[in-house]
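QA checklist item 7 of 12: single-chain prediction sanity check.
[x] sequence parsed
[x] length recorded as 153
[x] structure emitted
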Amino acid sequence: MQEIIEKFKKNPLGDSDRNKKLEIILTSLVFTFSWGYLLYTWDITTIWPLFGMCNQLLATCALIIGTTMLIRRGRAKYAWVTAGPGLFMLPVTLSAGYLNIVTNFLPKGLHLLAVISLIIMVLMAVIFIDAFKCWYDLLKDPKKQDYEVYWIK
């Protein structure tokens, strides 16, 4: 979250180590309060499906990012190892999220959980579309592959 904020606005706290620690603590408090609010407002059985969807989407995202790293490092012939499960889990998890919203949250009047689920699904779709564009560019022009790069640019 700190990185996203810094993209849009200069860090108001400054760049010192002390201020970065304060920034991390404040961000942690915001997220902890948010999940605590959800737990306090509803019970664990109500938000358990949201946890499950988040975990599956996170794992799927890790597989897709791993595939991007393999292609970028010039190991595209091994990309199927991570791309196969990632591409399988993407529609499965997104359809489960959709069904969760339509059959679980909205009928019970849990509009906040439905909105949170939808936001998570949209953000993950953005990540996947960007990864697919990156795969296409890298596979179309192998000269863009950098054998020494370990992180996605």
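[x] summary fact logged: The radius of gyration is 19 Å.
[ ] second reviewer sign-off
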